[in-house]
Every structure is written in structure tokens, then in C-alpha cells.
Design a protein that fits this description.
Elements: E1 9-11, H1 15-21, E2 44-50, H2 65-74, E3 79-81, E4 87-89, E5 92-97, E6 103-108, H3 122-132, H4 141-148, E7 151-156, E8 159-163, H5 182-185, H6 190-193, E9 208-216, E10 219-227, E11 240-246, H7 249-257, E12 263-264, H8 269-277, E13 283-285, E14 287-296, H9 309-317, H10 321-328, E15 333-335, H11 358-367, E16 381-382, E17 385-386, E18 388-394, H12 397-411, E19 416-422, H13 424-432, E20 439-445, H14 455-458, H15 475-486, H16 490-503, H17 530-533, E21 539-543
Parallel strand pairs: 2-11, 2-12, 18-19, 18-20
Antiparallel strand pairs: 1-13, 3-4, 5-6, 6-8, 7-8, 9-10, 10-11, 14-20, 14-21, 15-21, 16-17
Helix pairs in contact: 9-11, 15-16
């Protein structure tokens, strides 16, 4: 499962600002009648990275955020995504999709060259894909297996075709990997690539080229990049970008105060208050795709009340999510009303907002027939079934704090919840995968998949052995999710996965509605529709973090903890 983290705050200039303001020189001249500052060429930008140097190779940087930050400036991908999650040209200047959705033809920019002057060709793309699907590739097994099923055909030096075994609309998400130069690495196995000199003398095709490492006392403490004069989108405005490595965010903040750097890539919770109090500091915050939620096991034989939409709605209304954001997450999150990020192409603006309303929540529970038994007790009951269940969560202080807050809020409604922290591996193997849990507080990480695809967690086909842990069983919703997954037309996908889903059954509740979602700092119901909001999905959307960005590895792992990606 994936998560929606938005909890990092950026200092000074961010790479996003560089990308938007400095990489492209498309029209520096002001328009007639326009007023405002215009960018000029020159200067240096320095930024603190949290971590250390590993390998400056996009194939090998999956576990090292510091490497990824540098690689994004050194290397290019075929496709990139804008802030709305819409694919944009990068190395590929255009692309076309066959009518059956199985073939993708992409045209590489004719002026795209490597930092050593060699042309970027379709053979480089094929070489990189072969490395991705190698057994020795560090990518997840499901991603490697996916690429093994896809044919990659160079049609000419600047045209590449991908042939899929079946239509899959989110495929463009998979094309955001950094392209490697075959003329320098051809003949090098992925195993040998792990320790290749190339990783410390990288040659890419991005807006900046490798210049040199910065060292102190024999240790590499930073890296310098220079603007690439032949960059296919135009020379960057900034002449030089320097990254310096620091062990943690506190050290990075100290470096900023000492004027060693102009910006910090990431601000974690330990220094958040200090950063907010820093005078004259420009802060940049962004929503990161990390979604924390509470799954309700709809098929649990001892908890029939989870099938009652009014009970689920009452549970959602009984949580003061804004207070959780302010008190437990330092304000670094937003209340979420859908698993689709606001501001993205697939977000439905008419999604129902369910406010905090404990009085109405209590009325719904009473109307459903749940009362305190004559002999007393902490949980309301009906027909001998008490509103009582266990809430498991990954055993960490952040989750424990949130789980306790949830339990206290629901106790005021007469719902008795017992929080239980367990190791992440235990949560997966003994609770979620065998569907033996009652309720589970988890986090979904969508960091590497800009395409909003709720299919893995909500489709009927994923109920038994997939990731539909809540076992939500709604045929109409599944039909929409399945159609949205194979329809290449984005407008039709939005209608299939969004508005139409909301209108099904007259906007009524599904037969066996689903999970409850909750998470860090904000909350939204799972699914794409207003009727799914009635499922009682609580979700928190965290704020901040710029290093993650929109990147395209479409897997959905459950998160181990609360740390930002």
C-alpha cells in the first residue's frame, strides 16, 4: 500500500523552483504590457541534502533519496509529470497510443544528446529497460516482471515502441525512469554496474552535467553540477548547482544558518518549529502522495456493524481530524476527502466533505439501535453485538499517538477500540494478508505513481489474494475501476473512475461498502466517489517534501512508519 505524505517543508530555493523557473529559456522577454521580474543567466545555488553519496546512477538510486535528488538534474526520462499528474514531454517530444491501448510509440527529441556530445537514441532506451528487468536490478520483483512482459522495439534511431500484453492506461507512469547511455555502459552487466566507475563519473542527458566532487579530509562532502549548454530544452539559467551532504536535518539547518548552503532539501519534524521561526527564510511546502488510512475488515464474522454505512459514517464524523493535524502533526497535513489528490486531473471537485460532527455521529449510532446495556459498560450494543474492536498499527511512536487519539474520540461515541502495535512484518503477514484483522491503521505510499489508480485496494478481483484488505465488494464500482484502467483517453478515464462512479445506484450506498481510512495529518475517504465517502474512509494527507516529486514506479507498498520519503 502506498502513502500520501505532504510533511516536508523546503528552505530557500527548491529544485522544483529551479525546474520551473530556471531550466527553460523559452521566452525571457516580457510580453507587451507585462510587469514583473525576469530571470537572468548566471549564479550559483547550493542545497543541503540529508544523507550521503551512494551511486549517481538512476538504476541504482531507488534506496537513496540523496542520490535521487542529484540524478534528477543529471539524467532525463522519456516522460515527466506536471503538478496535476498529467504526463508531459521530456526526452520524448511526442507519443501515440494504439486504438487497442497495447502499443505506445514515442519520438525522442532530435536535439537530445548526452553530456559527452553523443546522440540519445532508442537503443539507449532499450538498454535501460533491459537493465530494469534484469534479475540483478534493485527494483521490486513485480516491476521487473512487468517489464519482462513488455516488448521494446526501436523503430529507428529516434523512435521507440512499447508493446504491452494487454491495455493498461497507467503505463506512461512507468516511463519516468532515468535513461542510461548504452555507448558507455553497453556490455556491463547490472551486477558489474553496481561498482562501475561510471557511478562516480556520471554522463547523463539532463539540464546539468557532473563537474566534480567536493571533499574534506578525504571524504566526499558534496557534488558540483554545471549547466549543460546543449540541453534539449535550452541551457539552464543557473550556472552551477552544488549539493552538500549532511547526516540529518538538524545539521542541514545549522549549515544554512552558517551560510554554507542557500537551501535545504527536506525539513523533518524535529526542526520544524525552528525553521518556522527562522526570520527571512522562504519556506516551500507541497503535498506528497502518502495516504494513511484505517481499513475495516468488512467480512469479519464478529463485526457485522462494519456493514452498516451509518455506523461507518458516524465513525468518520466522530474524528476531529483537524485537531489531529494541528496537535499531532504540527499542522503539516490537510483534511482529505478522496484518495485522489486535490488539484490533480482525476480529482472530482464535487466529492462530499464529511465534517467533524460528534453530535450527529452519536445520533446516527442511536438511530441504528445501539445503546448502552442495562448492566453498564463502555461500548454500546445491539442484539448482543457490542461496538468493540481491535485497531492494529505498525509499532512506532507516531502511529501509537494517532491510534490512541482515534480510540479516545470513538470512546466518546460509545465505541470501544483497543489499539495494538505490532511490527510491520507481523501486521502484513499475520493480519492484513490473511484478512484476520478487525481494523488496521496503515499508510499507502503513492510517491512513485502519479496515476490515480485505486484498483489494487478496492476492486473485487483483489479481495482474496490481492490488496483489497478491507474486502470491499461492489460490482459497479469495480466495473468503473477496471474500465478506467484500460481506457487510454484521459477524459473517459475521469468519467469512468470518477463522476460516473459517484452517480451509480442513484448516489446511494454500495451493498457492502468498504474501508475506513485515516492517517497523518488529514483524512479522506477511500475511493473516487462521493458515495465512497460514506464508506467512512479516514485519510490524512501530509504536507511538505519536495524531493519525492512525481515519479513513475507504480507499486503500492504498505509503509513501515511515519518517515517522509
Amino acid at each position: 500500500m502506498k502513502s500520501i505524505r505532504w510533511q516536508l517543508i523546503l528552505l530557500g530555493l527548491s529544485l522544483i523552483a529551479i525546474a520551473l523557473l530556471l531550466w527553460s529559456q523559452q521566452s525571457a522577454a516580457p510580453q507587451a504590457g507585462s510587469v514583473g521580474l525576469q530571470p537572468v543567466s548566471g549564479g550559483l545555488y547550493s542545497e543541503a541534502l540529508i544523507g550521503s553519496l551512494g551511486r549517481l546512477n538512476p538504476l541504482l538510486d531507488i534506496a537513496n533519496p540523496a542520490d535521487r535528488d542529484v540524478d534528477r538534474l543529471l539524467y532525463s526520462a522519456l516522460i515527466k509529470f506536471d503538478e496535476r499528474g498529467v504526463p508531459q514531454p521530456d526526452l520524448a517530444e511526442s507519443w501515440g497510443i494504439s486504438a487497442d491501448g497495447k502499443a505506445y510509440n514515442l519520438s525522442i527529441r532530435p536535439n537530445a544528446v548526452w553530456h559527452d556530445g553523443e546522440a540519445v537514441t532508442s537503443d539507449d532506451v532499450l538498454f535501460t529497460v533491459d537493465a530494469l528487468r534484469s534479475e540483478a536490478s534493485p527494483l521490486p520483483d513485480d516491476i521487473k516482471e512487468m517489464w519482462r512482459q513488455i516488448q521494446v522495439l526501436p523503430l529507428d534511431a529516434k523512435t521507440i515502441q512499447f508493446r504491452l500484453p494487454a491495455a493498461f492506461a497507467p503505463f506512461l507512469d512507468y516511463l519516468t525512469f532515468g535513461i542510461l547511455p548504452k555507448h558507455l555502459l553497453g556490455g556491463t552487466s547490472v551486477e558489474a554496474m553496481q561498482n562501475a566507475p561510471f557511478n562516480l563519473q556520471p554522463i547523463g542527458s539532463g539540464p546539468f552535467r557532473f563537474e566534480r566532487f567536493l571533499s574534506e579530509d578525504g571524504q566526499i562532502v558534496g557534488v558540483s553540477l554545471r549547466a549543460f549548454e546543449q540541453y534539449y530544452l535550452g541551457r539552464p539559467y543557473i550556472d552551477e548547482v552544488i549539493f552538500r551532504y549532511y547526516p540529518d536535518s538538524t545539521a542541514a539547518l545549522n549549515a544554512y544558518r552558517a551560510k554554507e548552503v542557500l537551501g535545504i532539501s527536506r525539513v523533518d519534524e524535529p526542526i520544524l518549529k525552528d525553521v518556522l521561526a527562522e526570520v527571512g527564510l522562504n519556506l516551500y511546502t507541497a503535498r506528497l502522495p502518502s495516504l494513511t488510512l484505517i481499513f475495516l475488515n468488512l467480512n469479519h464474522p464478529d463485526l457485522p456493524f462494519f456493514q452498516d454505512v451509518s455506523i461507518r459514517r458516524a465513525l468518520l464524523m466522530g474524528l476531529n481530524r483537524q485537531r489531529m493535524i494541528d496537535v499531532l502533526r504540527g499542522g503539516q497535513a490537510i483534511i482529505a476527502d478522496s484518495v485522489i489528490l486535490p488539484g490533480t486531473w482525476a480529482y472530482y471537485e464535487e466529492t462530499e466533505r464529511i465534517p467533524y460532527n460528534p453530535e450527529e455521529a452519536l445520533n446516527l449510532i442511536r438511530q441504528a439501535g445501539y445503546t448502552f446495556p442495562p448492566e453498564g459498560g463502555e461500548a454500546r450494543a445491539k442484539d448482543g453485538v457490542a461496538l468493540r474492536f481491535e485497531l492494529v498499527y505498525p509499532d512506532s511512536p507516531d502511529y501509537a499517538e494517532l491510534a490512541e487519539s482515534i480510540a479516545q474520540s470513538w470512546a466518546k461515541l460509545g465505541v470501544q477500540v483497543t489499539p495494538k502495535g505490532v511490527p510491520f512484518e507481523t501486521l502484513m503477514s499475520q493480519y492484513l494478508e490473511p484478512r484476520s484483522y478487525q481494523a488496521a491503521l496503515v499508510e499507502l505510499n503513492f510517491t512513485r505513481s502519479p496515476d490515480p489508480d485505486p484498483y489494487p485496494f478496492w476492486d473485487q478481483a483483489q479481495m482474496d489474494e490481492g490488496q483489497n484488505y478491507a474486502q470491499w465488494d461492489d460490482r459497479l464500482a469495480s466495473e468503473y475501476l477496471e474500465k478506467a484502467r484500460i481506457t487510454p483517453d484521459w477524459g473517459e478515464r475521469a468519467r469512468s473512475g470518477g463522476r460516473r462512479g459517484r452517480g451509480g445506484r442513484g448516489g446511494g450506498t454500495p451493498r457492502r461498502p468498504g474501508p475506513m481510512v485515516s492517517g497523518r495529518g488529514a483524512a479522506f475517504p477511500c475511493g473516487r466517489s462521493a458515495r465512497e465517502a460514506r464508506l467512512g474512509a479516514l485519510v490524512f494527507a501530509a504536507c511538505g517534501g519536495f524531493a519525492c516529486g512525481w515519479e513513475g514506479w507504480p507499486c503500492a507498498p504498505l509503509r513501515r512508519g511515519w518517515e517522509a520519503r
